[in-house]
Amino acid sequence: MAPPDPRSLLVFALVVVLLSCHTWEVRATAEVNMEDRVDVMLGDSAQITCMFSSEDGPGGTMIQWFYVARTGEKKRIYNLESGISLPDKGTPFSERINVNGSAASGAVVMTINDVQLKDELEFICIVKSLTDGTAEGRTKLRVFQTPEAPTIIGAQQGISVQETDLSKIGTCEVKNGYPRPNITWYKNTTPIHSIRDEVNVVPSVTTESSGLYSVKSELSMKVMKEDADAVFSCEVTYFSPGCETRMVETSAIDITVYYPHTSIKVWVESPKGKIKEGDTLEIHCSGDGNHPSTTFNIGVEEKVLIEGKVLVVENVTRLDSGVYRCTALNMESWIEISENTTVFVDYLEDVVIKPEKIIEVLQGDNGEATCNALSSLNTQTTWFKNGQEVSKGHTLSLNDASFETAGTYVCVVTALEVDGVERSGAVRVHVQGAPEILTPENAELEESVDQTVELSCYVRGYPHPTVTWSTSEGKIVPTASNTETDDGLISMASVTVTGDVIVFCNATNTLGEDSVAFSIKAKGSGVIIAVIIVCILLLAILGSVLYFLYKKGKICGRSGKQDLNKGKAGKDNIVVEMKSDNTEEAVLLGVNGEKQLQ
């Protein structure tokens, strides 16, 4: 390093001596205090305050207001001097500003009305004093506008996870804000940011003619199956006066995500449990995907029965048993997957009874019948007669047969594992024997004359007996009806009562005969005889009276007879002609007792 120049050291020493020997006068300078920034909403009024201190009075102080143009040039908009306050003409603020305060107060306030976006400038307050010099302060005016409510629009079509490119999820937009709003995407509650080859968030900003900002953000991403359950939303942040950050959210949207099937299942939806012949079979098929390009079909073995996810087979039979396959084919990737289910249809065939239809067994002998039905299920066989259970098992044994044994036996085969599955058949048992007429309860009857009596005769025996009706007088009584029963028949006959009579029911077949008698007493025959006797007695008395009158001469002879045709007919001229076996004389006796000759 070179040593200092001696001449320089000499000059420096001289200056120090002069300064130390001279007395300097320190004078105060003007000071201006202003806020760094003033915030105001678009269209409101802004107040910018300029505070200053100066030892000069109002007459020695001049205050001027300037703004800094976009070009950096200072332009005056207001001047306050010697108590005279005037805005400069021809400026953007000439008609919109006013200034309050004075140099004496040490503060002036400039008010800008109807603030516009173009007013967002820096404003300068310059204070000039005769003794204190010049000072200035600066304030930046910040203008704010709350944006409109944001909107969100989701993808209108489904998105496949098999897409190789990023898929558009949706678009968020917020309009007419100032300063520029910001948009943040969310998936559920997690913010979304751009990730190469996975997520792309593309914002765009539009400056409207008003100077306000509109912001749009478009989200694209590679979707996964899990995104089918996700919701997407946007958060908009914007600024307000005071540097406050505010936030507003959009509504949430979801998207339709298409993803291929990786597995499928097939099952019998109906009926639940065992399947029996006659049921309606319903087979369903589904997978874990939802891609619209996937087709389903259901078939048995190699035969396709239906294109779709549901197969319905009505009135199934055992021939519908088999392995049913559901197949899903992705028409984009041509990947096919399938799954099987086995269907078995249980059956119970019609019963087979041997001997068929009719069994004939001699009275006192033994007989039997068997009943079977082919089935894929465990079964139970029960025999019934007249609705009452008489035997269990496949074989019906008829020991020491009697007429009570005869009748219709029903064999019912029931599937034990499936409710409501049963088959039945019947066999008729005839017990061979001579006719046997059961003693009637009304073998002796009393009935009025001319009344009709209904007689019935219950005959047991087989072959079916022939029944005839007859009376004790040998007359044949027509049969009204014959009704077959399990062990014989019931014969009916109608008899009209004319007097006491005995009616016979006669039954015969190839093995014998039998008969029963009905005794019918006619009520009212004694009364008729009594009436006849009374009539005879009355006639006898009348004859006696007439004879007595004749003997007394109260009755005229034949010579005194008058011509009845000449007499006057009337209600009182009724006459009786009397003749005697001993005389030819006749007497006409009037009802009023007068004799009239014939």
From TrEMBL:
The keyword Cell inner membrane does not apply. One of its GO terms (cellular component) is membrane. It comes from the Eukaryota. Pfam families: C2-set_2, I-set, Ig_2, V-set. InterPro entries: CD80_C2-set, Ig-like_dom, Ig-like_dom_sf, Ig-like_fold, Ig_I-set, Ig_sub, Ig_sub2, Ig_V-set. SMART domains: IG (SM00409), IGc2 (SM00408). Residues 6-142, 150-251, 260-342, 349-428, 435-519 form the Ig-like domain. It is a single-pass membrane protein. Residues 1-28 form the signal peptide. PROSITE patterns: IG_LIKE, PROKAR_LIPOPROTEIN. It is found in: Membrane. Keywords: Disulfide bond, Membrane, Signal, Transmembrane, Transmembrane helix. The chain crosses the membrane at residues 527-550. The keyword Glycosyltransferase does not apply. This is Ig-like domain-containing protein.
